[in-house]
Give the backbone structure.
Amino acid sequence: MTDKRLHEIFRDIEERYRQRTPKAAEHNARAKHCFPGGDTRTATFYQPYPAYMVKGQGCLLYDVDGNQYIDMLSNYTSLIHGHAHPKIMEAVRAQLENGSVFGSATEIQYIHAEHLCARVPSLEQMRYGNSGTEGTLFAMRAARAFSGKEMFIKMDGGYHGSHDFIEVNVFPGSGTEPGAAGLPARHVEPSAPLSVLNDILVVPFNDLDAVEILLKKYEDKIAAVILEPMLGALGMVTPQDGYLKGLRELTESYGVLLIFDEVITFRISTGGIQKSEGVTPDLTAMGKIIGGGFPVGAFGGRKDIMALFDPNQPNAVFHSGTFNGTDIVMAAGLATLELYDQTAVDQVNALGEKLRNGVNQAFKKADITGQATGLGSLAQIHWRPGEITNALESVEGFFLAGELPKFLHLELMNRGFYCAKRGMLVISTAMDETIVDKFLEEFAEALDLLKPYVVEKAPHLLAG
Ligand SMILES: Cc1ncc(COP(=O)(O)O)c(C=O)c1O
């Protein structure tokens, strides 16, 4: 097949996308006047321009051009019950009747917190913010204030939101600053201060030896190890057997705190990965589904650490925020948590497994060495064979795939599936087996369509 013919396959995919979304193109052209590139959230942008959604109902989304999509993204994992769930709407409406936020302590705040503390093993006490970013920011501040130490160990490719403390090696393996003790080279994200590198050390995920090297070297300087118990944004990279337990033992033996960022992974069980894996960190950061579709963040953990925030204490650590514990968020979140019981967890996790297995089978059938990773209701498409144990191995697949992720994404959009351009797939309780079957059918057809590109331009991805 000639380059011209390959080019035509891609042009055809993009052309069909453009034909389905003429109004979105107009919206994007107008939005470009006030937003750089026409978008206000880097993650939701994709080329040639994003679809503009106007309505969500259950697992369905509708765009401004009248197209219907099955929502395989759930606002980047935050909508566990899909859109406009009647019980959540009812709770929000009832709260709205009385006002959305009072600037005072309210009952629903501690009821929401009681609910979480009962479910998440590490949460003896907690506090709220407005984003997962604030959740990790204040978990780190708590660790600093409690330990009196300044440094943290984070994972290469770990994502904890967009505050300066942690904007190191969010994208893995391309550092210009030497890593400590021969470990991954480091870099800060553009616009974050270089000085962050004084305090942030980086290790590959799933590498206990690397953590021990740093703990030995900087034991008296390290406040905490912070990680997503499954790398999320960097490709749903799962912890190997014994890794989380090993981290717990290591941090305990060196007197260093352990922070789990369960902003994404809380949904894996009724109480996060810490509950399903039986490993209790000292502090936990949360966000996403606990706000029921509204902006939220939280952090919490051991009572002796959280006592630092007790405003009755003369030198309490200051933690405030105009919208912390906003009642409308708490109402939506509480209704969401009540609905997300063991039965619901089992339902979405079983669908997630079906989805991952189905994606793996489709790759096999197409003779392409791709795979799906993930846990529970979360999956990530990878264009590479072999076990993926850390972020570098995860992005390697992305580079090996050339244009495939971009055009798979657009083609899935053309077939009525709204998913992340990076290939993340998310199950909600609004889905059932027929939805997953439908996705798998269309996914297999999309792979067939793209196969000529694999044969010509990415033959290293051909199986056998
Ligand atoms: C693991 C993790 N931590 C923190 C955050 C930041 O959350 P937010 O976007 O609500 O600030 C995210 C966001 O995707 C995340 O995936």
Observations:
- The chain has a mean pLDDT of 95.
- The chain is about 40% helix and 15% strand.
- The pocket of pyridoxal-5'-phosphate is lined by residues 76, 131-133, 136, 159-161, 228, 232-233, 261, 263-264, 287, 297 (CB under 6 Å).
- The CA atoms of residues 13 and 411 lie 6 Å apart.
